[in-house]
Amino acid sequence: MTATPLLAELAFRARAQAHAHGVAAACSCGAATLADRPDATVVRHADTVAKAHAPDTDPAELTARLTAAARVADVLLPPRTPTPARLHGRLVTFWPYGVPVDPDDPDAAPWEAAGTLLAALHRAPAPPGLPPMRGPVKAAHAVARLRAAGPHPVAASVLRAWSLLPAWARAEAPMPGAAVLCHGDLHLGQLVRHPGPDGPWRLIDVDDLGVGVPAWDLARPAAWYACGLLPPDEWTRFLAAYRARGGPAVPADGDPWPALDVPARALTVQTAARAMTKALAQDRPLDEVEQCLVDACVRMGSVPPQLASNSAK
């Protein structure tokens, strides 16, 4: 595949950052393109990662998010530079490389680390000027893309589940009590070890970082658990670690579901909408996991959010 001008320049800048203190004329360091999508292009060179953010990224908001990450460096991987650069019309940030979770070793998934880091993030003071967490906005975008993708046999069930959510969860109203520092897109792909494979776990990706409803950050694993896609033991490990660190999103004991129900429903709809949009684009049927998400939306459409509980998965 021929490198685009952005990709080529990003690779050059990553190399320059990696060897800011001197480099031999012929560099034999490892380099790789980690992602090349319309909303993110990510290149690694040695111990440095360069990321081109989505074209519509606001520079002031991204700078505020970088500042917040630097302030909680024991939770979030801190950026190498405090402000973004601009390349080919895109904002670019530079980061240390962290070793990601091994997707081929699910038994080693760091659920305890995820819960602990998330609780610490939620308890950290939110810096002034930080924009709202973007979780609901991303969910609304996924639903909008589904609507624009064309007819699908089960789209109505997903859209009905979406319509029953409160306005804040659909990004149509401000989030209630939005004063907690939140990640906005928590999943295991957002954890890395740094420095090296034996270093402590850290959260990455500040694109959705902001102030908001902390339960949103627990919503993806909660949704997968409720859909039967995450084993109860893994969900329990994650939730117990979050509670042990004093995470404010759920009560310290008892049933967490009243706090998690609305965000978990929203993440279920978001994930189902993305799956259906992808299936339509590829002209294929839904796979087993995607069908589980759609089935959950069908069930949600018959039970109002305020009446749901984890016992009615």
What does this structure look like?
With 313 residues, the protein is α+β, with helices and mostly antiparallel strands. The strands form 3 sheets. A 5-stranded antiparallel β-sheet has the order 1-2-3-5-4, covered by helices on one side. A 3-stranded antiparallel β-sheet has the order 6-8-9, covered by helices on one side. Strands 7-10 form a two-stranded antiparallel sheet. Strand 8 and strand 9 form a beta hairpin. Helix 5 runs antiparallel to helix 8 and helix 5 packs across helix 9. The chain is globular, with a radius of gyration of 20 Å. The C terminus is likely disordered.
Q: Could you outline the blueprint of secondary structure elements for this entry?
A:
Blueprint: H1 5-18, E1 31-37, E2 40-45, E3 48-52, H2 59-71, E4 85-87, E5 90-96, E6 99-100, H3 111-123, H4 135-149, H5 155-163, E7 180-182, E8 191-193, E9 201-203, E10 210-212, H6 219-226, H7 232-244, H8 257-282, H9 288-300
Antiparallel strand pairs: 1-2, 2-3, 3-5, 4-5, 6-8, 7-10, 8-9
Helix pairs in contact: 3-7, 4-8, 5-8, 5-9, 6-8, 8-9
Defining traits:
313 residues, alpha+beta, Phosphorylase Kinase, domain 1, Aminoglycoside 3'-phosphotransferase, Chain: A, domain 2, five-stranded antiparallel sheet, three-stranded antiparallel sheet, 10 strands, 40% helix, globular
